[in-house]
Model the fold of this input.
Amino acid sequence: MRNSRKIPLLLFIVVLGLVFSGCGGASEASYNNAGDGAVNYEAPASEPVEEAPDTSHDQSQTALQQRIIVMEGSMTVKSYEPEPVVNFITQLAERYGGYIVDSSLTKHPVANGEERTDGYIKIRVPAGKLTEAISEIEALDLTVVTKDLAGKDVTAEYVDLKSQLRNLEDAAAQLQAIMDNATDTEAVLEVYRELADVNEEAEVIRGQIQYYDDVSSMSSLEVTVNQIVDEPTPTPTPTPKPWSLSPAFEDSTEDLSRSMKNWLENVVWFIVYFIPNFLLRVVPWLLAIYFGGRWVLRKLKKDKKSIEPKNE
Done:
């Protein structure tokens, strides 16, 4: 009795499964076969067609995995002749395939009316040659006062600029397509202005990217060359000798003998030189004045007596 009841139930389940499987096959056939008069299914026109993946962005990201480092160096040195040092650094930059950014020689007045010459030069050399260039400069006959070597990682800024440029180029391409398909004059002019602004901003970004490319491939080196000027040697202050009686006695004796010598020289000069010169030059004039005066006085007295009347 129990088995006779199960048979109708199993038959019902099998028939129901066949019905559903037949409906599924018919619906699938209707979607895949458009020529049977069934429903013809077509993909909507607005549904995007899947394209091949763009690998250019991945390639650029792989290239940027190498860090972008900007290396800069600076030195301050002293030399007796700065000009040959500046000339050597100039030739060094050319030899390494670099170039000169700035160079100067300046004269400064110093004590005693002399001049000091200071030099300055800034060069760019390939990044891999910067340390070699510094080593060659240090090998010269000079004194290194300061030396600095610094690196700045600009990878983040570089990647950001690349991303901005890619977005601007995409926007420019879309604006160009819109302008090509537009028929309204005002719309064309508006899109043209937008396209010009986008292109101008893209050029600025390209310039910044080019700058990072240049400074990362060519490192800068600044060298200041100060001339060494020998200062005059200061005269040492003599140390006073301690006082003693013997030097004082010797000094007194020397002073006395010097005074006696001077006195004797004056006496001899007076007797030998002054008196003869006085007698020869002055005494004759005195005698002439004396006798001439007496003669004049006598003559005046004689004339006076001859003029006076005689008493009778």
Remarks:
- The first helix runs from residue 2 to 32.
- The beta strands are 69-79, 99-109, 115-126, 143-153, 218-227.
